[in-house]
Amino acid sequence: DLLIYGGDGFVVLIDPSDPSYVYAEFQYGGLSRSTNGGSTFGTATSGISFGDRFNWKCPLIMDPNTPSTLYFGTNRLYRSTDRASSWTAISDDLTKGDEPGNLAYNTLTTIAVSRLDPDVLWTGADDGSIHFSDDGGTNWNKIDAGLPERWVTNIEADPNSANGAIISLSGFRWHEEEAHIYRTTDRGLTWEPLMEGLPNLPVNDVLFDPADPDRIFAATDAGVYTSSDAGSHWQNLYEGLPSVVVTDLALDRKS
Questions:
Q1: pLDDT mean values, one per 10 residues, the chain (255 residues)
Q2: Upper half-sphere CA count for residue 207 (Cβ side, 13 Å)
């Protein structure tokens, strides 16, 4: 292994169009970038207000359509179109607002951009807030009505429909029976719970197979589950994988 950056490491991104650009972050929004393939790093937070609220693991993603465009979340959403040389806020507060406490809360935890329409943006927060924009962040709609008030662990934009997305939720404290995965096909106007075959445990990540719109994978506190019918039914991927907490998934689409 090679250490390229310090701190409690979180998101690392490498620009697929130019691997000289590498992005790395540590806790509470410590974002840096490299322009020489990771040999050296410099701070990459110009334009981000440190009066904002920062999650322990701030969400950072690359636009799948244009890798030089990135998105970063505090309690607001920021966009950079120059490989993190500078950032511009493209939203107001996308959470339920500042609440008293000794830890950071009311912060964004996940961001998604549609592969079909780069103006379609989704955000989720640790307080259960979910927002949607179809004009590149000029206007936002709150779309979490009827959903449990739980930490949104991931939003995955549907690779086959700009109107669709799937979300995963944490939460186990009160032994509630609500689902931990929901799907929308109408930009969040309605949400369908997807729980048949899933344990009543936190779901930490979820993703679509872009080659098969009906195949979905979910990382849970008890291993990885998969669905071949768009989330209507789930089964555990037992072979070779123990029943352990899985926090992140990646799909190698080239193999």
A1: 77 96 95 95 96 96 97 98 98 91 86 97 97 98 95 96 97 81 97 95 94 93 95 90 90 74
A2: 13
Q: Residue 16, Cβ neighbours under 10 Å: how many?
A: 10
Q: Which of 1, 7, 92 is nearest to 43 (CA)?
A: 7
Identify each DSSP E strand in the chain by its residue range: 12-14, 22-26, 30-34, 42-43, 60-62, 70-73, 77-80, 88-89, 108-113, 121-125, 130-133, 141-142, 152-157, 165-169, 181-184, 192-193, 203-209, 212-220, 223-227, 235-236
CA distance 251 to 218: 11
Q: What is the pTM of this model?
A: 0.94
Q: Which residue from 113, 108, 140, 139 is spatially nearest to 124, judged by alpha carbons?
A: 108
Q: What is the DSSP string of 90-155?
A: -SS--SS----SSS--S-EEEEEE-SS-TT-EEEEETTS-EEEESSTTSS-EE--TTS-S--EEEE
Residue 123: both structure tokens together: 């955000």
How far apart CA 171 and CA 27 sit, in angstroms, is: 22
Question: Residues 202, 170: contact at Cβ < 8 Å?
Answer: yes
Give the Cα separation of 104 and 175 in Å (integer). Answer: 24
* Token output for 185: 């096909």
Distances (CA, A) of 131 to 47, 80, 94, 120: 22, 19, 7, 11
Three-state secondary-structure class, residue 77:
strand
